[in-house]
Amino acid sequence: MSREESVIYLTFDDGPVPGVTDFVLDQLAKRGMLATFFMVGDNVGKSPQLAAEVFEAGHAIGNHTYHHVDGFRTPDKKYFEEIQLCQDEISSVTGISPSLFRPPYGKITRKQLEEVKQHYKIVMWDVITGDYDPDQSFHKCLTKTKEHTKKGSVILFHDQQKTEKVIKAVLPDFLEYIQDQGFETGKL
Fold it and tell me: For the whole prediction, is pTM greater than 0.90?
């Protein structure tokens, strides 16, 4: 994204997950911040009300496949079916049809990429928090995320069960940091 303005883009992958996504929503709302949530269709089906809350709070929603599949290990036909299933689930719950797509694990073959980009804006990231890494301390997660955040950064967090402790420990401090630095948050 543009490095000209003091705007960063918070993204959250893999939700919605009760106990995590609602925590993220609360933290963002307290500070009047916006984010983009790349949702897994299966999780939308399990927690439709939470998915609807994300949309109703004014955040952007993107497609992250139905079962969080790895493009390198998934045949093309199945990969495209996963995207469509996720799209249908999100649409049935929120009434919107996302135009954004993020490949799970950041893995997508060239053929998949060529097909997907005809229908979606593919969004990657430039700052990965590592919130999913059990060997990384909360302090290291926060420190390195702050260190790499600059104008236009697309920051990758996860609102899923295995990141719950890290998100709850790191996100409030990170959000305070970006406010103190004068950053605004934007939707993709």
Answer: yes
